[in-house]
Amino acid sequence: MTTLLATRVMPADVDSAAEAARILAAGGLVAFPTETVYGLGADATNGQAVARLYDAKGRPAFNPLIAHVLDLQAAKKLGRFDADAERLAAAFWPGPLTLVLHRAAGCPVAELATAGLDTIAVRVPSHLVARNILKAFGKPVVAPSANRSGHVSPTTAAHVLADLGGRIDLIVDGGATPVGIESTIVACLGAPALLRPGGLPRAAIEQALQQKLSDAPAAGGGDDDAPIAPGLLAAHYAPRTRLRLAIRRVEPGEALLAFGPVPAANAQAAKTALNLSARGDLIEAAANLFSHLRALDDAGAPAIAVMPVPADGLGEAINDRLARAAAGDR
Ligand code: TXA
Ligand code: MG
What CATH number matches the domain at 8-234, 3.20.20.60, 3.90.870.10, 3.40.50.2300, 3.30.300.30? Predict the structure, then answer.
């Protein structure tokens, strides 16, 4: 049972970092922006705080969390870096890349946070607000996306408040998150494998490694609601409204999630429409994806018709999230 908390919202500034650190140290829950999406932070070394975090999200306890730290040196206290991991950290940290590594000896992260696995997901965020909080706190912070489990990830403080208001202590409002889609997750446990496409395109990673990434053993990518390379359940990021993907024609009364120029007939048929990127820019589209899905979900349309989005660059992650949203049982 979660008791109802008075969730405070503070603008991001020097005071908010100190206040966030104070709450984290007391075992509380603080949502804050990263460059990808808002995270819900807890003291990674405090099992009870981590348990509260699972409870607040309504997240299955077997699904492990990403530990966030300030730099490579701090990351090496948590996980063991092989040559590939070293190369990726040097190329992309701080930034939207999470590495899954073998747990280091003496890793202080609570067992519950890694769901009892002998591996750990580690990330060094670049967002200044996240970094100021990590600096003020001085210990690793586990932070899943700050949404209720199975909902779309939040890219604004208002999204976090809508999902988690009354369930967490503090939201640090640093405006909309610039990347808008979660970090790319790469396992460095042998041949490097892509576990979840995300804010850092596959091609950039393969270029840095000078080799292809293998795909995750089970389903490839994932997030909140699953076991194995844990988050690999198909149904995820589920709005309540049914999604129709890669549509050519909008049925009258549907909500339209557009990409690029919209044919006039479709614009007319749609009850309401939002464009991920009118100029067909995948980076802009990623940044808009979750907030547009949320807004269209609230439109009361029988379905959300989604125009095709190309699969290159960030399009891989966008299509992955759309497919998960469409697969939800409802
Ligand atoms: O951009 C992001 O990564 C955001 C921000 C807040 O940092 N965080 C985020 O966390 O998306 P979350 O918990 O929503 O997704 C983390 C994913 C889950 O699918 C989880 O199963 C996977 O990472 N994961 C965590 N630890 C893992 C491990 N040891 N092995 C395999 N997958 C792991
Ligand atoms: Mg998530």
Answer: 3.90.870.10
299: DSSP letter: T
Confirm or reject: Cβ of 88 under 6 Å from ligand 1.
no
Residue 73's H or E segment, with its range, is helix 72-75
Measured in Å, residue 192 CA sits from the centre of ligand 2 at 22
What's residue 231's pLDDT? 45
Ligand 1 in contact with 64 (CB < 6 A)? yes
Sketch the domain layout of the chain as residue ranges: 8-234, 242-327
DSSP string, 217-266: SSSS---TT-STTTT--S--S--SSEEE-S-SSPPTT-EEEE-SSPPHHH
Is residue 180 within 6 Å of ligand 1 at its C-beta?
A: no
pTM: 0.85
